[in-house]
From TrEMBL:
Lineage summary: Bacteria, Pseudomonadati, Pseudomonadota, Betaproteobacteria, Rhodocyclales
Keyword rRNA processing: no
Name this protein carries in UniProt: FAD-binding oxidoreductase
Matches recorded under InterPro entries: FAD-dep_OxRdtase, FAD/NAD-bd_sf
Domain of life of the source: Bacteria
Length: 405
C-alpha cells in the first residue's frame, strides 16, 4: 500500500522520495507533481553546490548532497556535475580576512587551500589583478544541471519502487483527530496516506497554512544573468564568490553566469504565484532586474573590467523560499501526526537536497537524525500570518543578509 505521499516533484520532493526508497520504503511512496518534475524553482537554479555555511549542521547537509550525487553517478545517473571547486576571492588588503576564512573552513572540516593572487588568476583569468589579494579555494564544491539532478533522484527512486504521478494537483491535506489521513486532489478525489511530505516549493504554504501549520518562509526573487559569449572566461574555471560586492559567478558555456545580491530583495505573496512560472515577474517596474544590475554593475566591473560592454544574453529569475532566521524548514508538524515539511532553503535547495532528503527519511522512520534538526522545526515561530506584508518583508530582508554560498 502506498501510504507515504510526497507533494511536489522538484529537487526536494525528488530527494525525499529517493532517500525513502534507499531505506526500503520505495513501494510505499507516491510523488504527486501537478506539472512536470523540476518545472518549479528547481529548473531555474544556478545549481551551485557549496559547502561553506555558518551553521555546522548545514555544512553536513550540503556534504550529504555531494555524497548523494556520488551515489547517483555510481548508478550511472547523469547530473551534469562540473567539479570545478569554488574560489572565495578577497579584495586587495583582505589578506587577514582570507586567512580567517581558511581557518573557519578547516574548523568546519571543509578542505581548503589558501592561495595568492597569481594562483587565483591562474584559475580565473577574467579577474582584474589589481582588485584582488588572493583567495580560498574549496575543491569539493561543484555545480550541476538542476533538471538532471532532480530527474536522477526520481529515476533512481522509481527503480526502488517509488511511483511518480504527474499532472496531479493536491488541493488539501486531510486530517482527523490530530492525524494525517491523506490528500485531496483538485478533481475532488482523495488519496489515503499515513504520512504526507509537503515539498511543494514556493507553493508549500498554501497547503500547510490551510492545515494549521503556517511555514516561516516566503518566496523571494532570486536572479542571475548570463553574458554574451566571451573568450575572457575560461571553460572549466571555478565558481567565484566576491563577498565584498555580494556577487558570485561561474562559467556557462563560453560565457559568464553571475548573480549580484540586491540591497532590497522582492518577496511575493504565494497566493499570487501562478503554477506556471514562465511569465511571472516579481517586480512589474523592473521585470528584467535591470535596476538590481545597475546597482551592482560598477562594483562588478572593478573585478571584471569590460563586463559593462558585454551584452547580457539571458536573465533568469524565480522564487526561492527565504526564512526570517535563515534556517531551513525540515521536520514534522508537532500538532498533526504524519505531516512533514521539506522546504525553506534560502536560495540553496540544490545544495541541501541530499541532506534534506536524508533528514526527512530518518524522521519518517523514527531514526535519530544525522544532524541536529531542532533549529529547522517548521513550527519554531508559533502562529503568525505567512501572507502578511510585514512577514513577506522579513523574509525578503533575510536574502539581503545572506552570506556567500
Ligand atoms: C534564480 C535562482 C537561482 C538559484 N540558484 C541556486 C543555486 O545556485 N544553488 C542552490 O542550491 N539553489 C539555488 N536556487 C534555489 C533552488 O532552486 C530551490 O531552493 C530549489 O529548487 C527548491 O526546490 P523545491 O523542490 O522545494 O521547489 P520546486 O522546484 O519549486 O518544486 C516544487 C514542485 O511542487 C509542485 N507543486 C506545487 N504545488 C503543488 C500541488 N498542490 N500539487 C502537486 N504539485 C505541486 C510544483 O509544480 C513544483 O514542481 C536558486 C533558485 C533560483 C530561483
Amino acid at each position: 500500500m502506498r501510504d507515504i505521499v510526497v507533494i511536489g516533484g522538484g529537487v526536494l520532493g525528488a530527494a525525499v522520495a529517493w532517500a525513502l526508497s534507499r531505506r526500503g520504503l520505495g513501494e510505499r511512496v507516491l510523488v504527486l507533481e501537478r506539472s512536470q518534475p523540476a518545472s518549479g524553482a528547481t529548473s531555474r537554479a544556478a545549481a551551485l553546490v557549496t559547502l561553506l555555511r555558518d551553521d555546522p549542521a548545514m555544512v553536513e547537509l550540503a556534504r550529504e548532497t555531494l555524497r548523494a550525487i556520488a551515489v547517483l553517478e555510481d548508478e550511472a545517473e547523469e547530473v551534469g556535475r562540473r567539479q570545478v571547486g569554488s574560489l572565495h576571492v578577497g579584495a586587495a588588503g583582505q589578506g587577514e580576512a582570507l586567512d580567517a576564512l581558511a581557518a573557519r573552513c578547516s574548523s568546519l572540516g571543509i578542505e581548503v587551500c589558501r592561495i595568492g593572487r597569481d594562483q587565483v588568476l591562474a584559475r580565473a583569468g577574467w579577474l582584474e589583478p589589481d582588485a584582488i589579494e588572493g583567495g580560498v579555494f574549496v575543491p569539493d564544491d561543484c555545480y550541476v544541471e538542476p533538471y538532471l539532478l532532480c530527474t536522477a533522484y526520481l529515476r533512481a527512486a522509481s527503480r526502488r519502487g517509488v511511483r511518480l504521478m504527474t499532472g496531479v494537483e493536491a488541493r488539501a491535506i486531510h486530517h482527523a483527530d490530530g492525524k494525517v489521513e491523506g490528500v485531496e486532489l483538485t478533481d475532488g478525489s482523495r488519496i489515503a496516506a499515513r504520512v504526507v511530505v509537503n515539498a511543494a516549493g514556493p507553493w508549500a504554504n498554501l497547503l500547510s497554512a490551510d492545515a494549521g501549520l503556517p511555514l516561516p518562509m516566503a518566496p523571494v526573487r532570486s536572479h542571475y544573468w548570463i553574458t554574451e559569449p566571451t573568450s575572457a572566461v575560461e571553460r572549466g574555471g571555478p565558481i567565484v564568490f566576491l563577498s565584498e560586492i555580494r556577487a558570485y559567478a561561474r562559467p556557462e558555456v563560453g560565457a559568464l553566469l553571475f548573480g549580484i545580491r540586491e540591497q532590497r530583495p522582492v518577496a511575493a505573496d504565494p497566493r499570487g504565484l501562478p503554477a506556471d512560472l514562465g511569465g511571472f515577474v516579481f517586480d512589474a517596474r523592473d521585470p528584467e532586474g535591470w535596476e538590481s544590475l545597475a546597482e551592482g554593475a560598477a562594483d562588478l566591473a572593478r573585478y571584471f573590467p569590460g563586463v559593462e560592454t558585454l551584452g547580457m544574453a539571458h536573465y533568469i529569475s524565480g522564487p526561492s523560499n527565504y526564512t526570517p532566521d535563515g534556517k531551513l524548514i525540515v521536520g514534522a508538524d508537532p500538532a498533526l501526526d504524519g505531516l512533514y515539511v521539506a522546504s525553506g532553503c534560502n536560495g540553496s535547495g540544490i545544495t541541501f537536497s541530499g541532506g534534506i532528503g536524508r533528514l526527512i527519511a530518518e524522521m519518517v522512520c523514527q531514526e535519530p537524525t544525522f544532524v541536529p534538526a531542532t533549529a529547522f522545526a517548521p513550527a519554531r515561530l508559533g502562529m503568525f500570518d505567512p501572507f502578511s506584508p510585514q512577514f513577506l518583508a522579513a523574509c525578503a530582508a533575510a536574502r539581503a543578509r545572506k552570506s556567500a554560498g
